[in-house]
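User: Second chain of the day. Same drill as before.
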Amino acid sequence: MSIAAIDDRPASRAPLIPPTPPRAPENLSALGRLAAIRHNAIASWGDRAYQDDVVRGRFFAHSSYILNTPDAIRHVLVDNTDNYRRTATGIRVLRPMLGEGLLLAEGRAWKHQRRTLAPAFTPRAVATLVPHMASATDEVVEGLRRKTGVPLDLRETMQHLALEIAGRTMFSFEMGTHGQALRGFVIDYGTRLASPRFLDLLLPLGWPTPQDVSRALFRRRWTRFIGELIAARRAAGKAEGAPPRDLFELMLAARDPETGEAFSDAQLGDQVATMILAGHETTATALFWALYLLALDPDAQERLANEVRRVGFGGTEIERLPFTRAVLDETLRLYPPAFLIVREAAGPDRVAGFAVRKHDVMLIAPWLLHRHDKLWSDPNAFVPERFLPGVPSPDRFAYLPFGVGPRVCIGAHFALVEATLALAKIVGTFRIELIDTEPVIPIGVVTTQPDRSPLFRLTPR
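Assistant: Same format as last time:
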């Protein structure tokens, strides 16, 4: 069922359709598709992937299925989730950065981590972290006041802001000392090691590839760096009898409600790495795309700024900002940070009428789902109004910016609070315009990134 783009835009205003990469030809060879995936996975899909319920293909010796129906997605990610696991390629790419943290853990280890971490990400717990988010955002806004009228790289600014928020909410200290090193690790890994090579796709996980050797060396340096961050936070101490003031103290005090077990030092390090990386990188990217869309759509930008001004937003009352939140939700639809979820069948199954065999691959692509012709009206248009209160909500399994099911992102509420607060403060303070007119094309490499960083100009409101 198509989700209507119900809105209250002026009738004379055509919806904005931001640029996207060209779609792949349907007759693309296996090697050609592999090359396209390495360059930009988003550009490896043809028209059928945006139109059909299921697209069956081959992944080396096994079948692959692109699933675009909510029922099939529910089956794989919820109803029979124990039969579907991460692929060796996905583990290869993510484990050097995230270790055995929540994102990659399986079975009993995952259940222990999820139960133990859950209290740290409840709305009440997140509310205690909002002052950290607000202080970092206010400082960035003040810094931008001194740069009005000059060309700005807002992508870099959003990365700095999200990293500051990650550091303060995790450790209660500014990231000035460590931020440059952390960004260096992220950039280095993304440039050299994040894209799978042919052998990464071909060999079983227990057979190391040349890239795996480089990843292992990276892992050693990265783990040492995370250990230094934790040591610095431990040295800062904790006020006796005071409630936890950051995520680190919440995680340090956390106990599995069934076993009473705490995190080991190694587990704590992997959780810190997971939360900092997954939090700051995805939020920075979402904020960049939101600012880019608002710069392309001045009417929507003015509506957001007027909402902020009307409610007198100066702090944390994000529930009073429905249009701001709708802009963010629509941004996450058009540019889902996790553009692809890949699962491998552990045993035979039946999905969407197809007989699935062991090792067959299920591809659930939020990028495709969020732009699918059968699921959305004007699927490629920027229409924040489709997420306003009172408008019919999309099917739970057609809109997956944070995944779905037992492994839905534990930090979803944290991310939405952080991004809504930051977007309101920035757009409420500045008018944002693009300086250059070259299109910015999304590329899929781990997350949905822009192919370049365009220059913006800010003017005070």
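Residues 30-460 form a domain with the Cytochrome p450 fold (CATH 1.10.630.10).

User: Great, on to the next one.
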